[in-house]
Every structure is written in C-alpha cells, then in structure tokens.
Amino acid sequence: MKIGIVGLGTSLPSRRVTNDELATTLDTSDEWIRTRTGIGARRIAADDVDVTDLATEAAQKALDDAGLTVEDIGLIVVGTATGRAFPSTACIVQERLGARGATAFDISAACSGFIFALQTAASMLTTVEGKHALVIGAEKMSSIVDWSDRSTAILFGDGAGAVVIGPTEQAGLNAFELGTDGRGAHLLFKDIDGPIEMNGREVFKFAVRKLPEIVEKVIQKADSTLEEIDILIPHQANLRIIDAACERLHIPQEKVIVTIDEHANTSAASIPLALEEARQQGRLTPGTKLVLAGFGAGLTWGAAYITWTKGENT
C-alpha cells in the first residue's frame, strides 16, 4: 500500500514571550539569545492548558484538512516528552476526538519523537482497522523547564503539530533513517522530579555531526540526490546547528525552513510546526520532495524522505 500525508494541522498557544520579557527575570538579553541560538520569541501555554489540549487541537485540524472523520482513523501515535506517565497522551486524544476504534499510544524519543512516530505509524498502518493514522508531535516544554536557569529557559517553547497519513496514489513516505546511542543519555535528560539538564556543548557537537549524516543517509535510501530535494525541514533546536549542517551539505538557505526565531525549540512538535510554515509560504504542492530530520535526547535521531501528496488521498 502506498502511503502519504493527506492532512496537516497545528496548535500554538496565544501567549508570545519575547527575549526581552525573559530578560526581566534572567541575566540575559535579546542580543545574547539571538546570537547564540537564533531564537527571538516562543509560545508559552497557560497553566490550565495541558499537552493533550495542544495535541487534540492539532489532530482535529489535521482531520479537517484531510476531509476525514474519526471513523477513518485506525491508529493514533503521539511523540512527546512532556505527557503524563499514564495514561498516554494518545489515549486522551483518542477520547477527546471520539476515535473509539483507533489504537493509541505514545512514543518517547524527545526531539526526534515525531519522526519515530511517523515511521511507526506508517509501518503499522496495514495491520490496524481503518485506512488512516494520526501522527502527532506535541510538547508543553514550559512545564519542565527551570525558569531560573538561563542555559535552558531561553531555549524552549510549547506547541503541537499533526499529520494524517493514509493511502495515496503516489508513495509519499519514501524512506526513513532512525537511530539511538544511549551512551549519550547523560548529555540531555530530565529526572522524574527535576528540570531539564543539558551539556550544551556536547549536544551541539553531536547535532552538527549527526544532522547532515542522517540527511545524506535517508536520501540514499530513497535513491535520490541532494540536488533533487526541494525543502529541508530540520529540527528547530539552534540556528547555528542548522546553518552548520547546511554548510556541510552544501544546501542553499532558500531550501531550508526555519521557525526557531518565533517558536524556539518545541521538541517533538518542531518538525510538524515547520511543515505548516512551509505550507503557509506556498511551498507544498503535490510532488514536492522534502527531507525531515531531527535529533534529541537519548541520544536519538531520525530522518524521513517525503514526497508531498496532500490532495491525492483515495
């Protein structure tokens, strides 16, 4: 069965927190943050908004975009690092949508979570009832950040993005490249009762090395070339990482979607939010070739080679 993306939806909190606002409580400045990260602002969810609220809103928008109903959904997979221990975020989303017939579960792969969830859903789609699957990346990173720690508080934001995948006339999900190296688990982690802790220097070195590597590997798996790629959507962790990877790959900046200035690092939500930005720019048409590439705690990494198939669902 040929599978592609047939619907896309996102959710962003209304509250926009600028670097200048953070500078009122932290020893930092807009210039300091922008120079080191490329971040200018981030969206922060209200205290009474849960990650499940963001995930559900994005999922419903993706369903509407696909012209489908919950009866068409046989699987819901959520990539998140900020959901509750149990039940899973996906279970709550299933209940709120009324998708009674859908199998639902979460995947924890940090900032690589959306790619892991996408590959998992694609591989399972032929074995579940219902023709389509919802794949969601959703995070409320503000709930796990130590807002007194300048090294991490400036980096993260909240949001969610979702896609519906299902049968398409053309193959849309062409290739995946996933991986994990638990030897780096100590570089970026969160204990049960503690905030995020990160060795920024080592994570940066890992990301600059791994991002171009997985882009090249997934392109090779798809029997394609860098020149054929229309759009690269990298995980939005740090603009310097994105720029360094593009320089190594010799990918022109105009092919790269960057949202970190307004979204900051939204972990598993980063890539689907950037996918919506590409659509808003009018750059997603049937046949557009994209590479999605993420990396995160674990250490984990994942890339997907996609041909845009929105509008071709059967």
TrEMBL record:
Q: Which domain of life is it from?
A: Bacteria
Lipid biosynthesis found in the keyword field: yes
Q: Where does the record place the Beta-ketoacyl-[acyl-carrier-protein] synthase III N-terminal domain?
A: 105-182
What is its pathway?
Lipid metabolism; fatty acid biosynthesis
Q: Where is this region: ACP-binding?
A: 236-240
Active site (record annotation): 111, 235, 265
Name the CDD domains for this protein. Answer: KAS_III
Domain Beta-ketoacyl-[acyl-carrier-protein] synthase III C-terminal residues, every copy: 220-308
What are the record keywords, sorted?
A: Acyltransferase, Cytoplasm, Fatty acid biosynthesis, Fatty acid metabolism, Lipid biosynthesis, Lipid metabolism, Multifunctional enzyme, Transferase
**What is recorded about the protein's domains?**
The last Arg residue of the ACP-binding site is essential for the weak association between ACP/AcpP and FabH.
The protein depicted here goes by the name Beta-ketoacyl-[acyl-carrier-protein] synthase III
Origin organism lineage: Bacteria, Bacillati, Bacillota, Bacilli, Bacillales
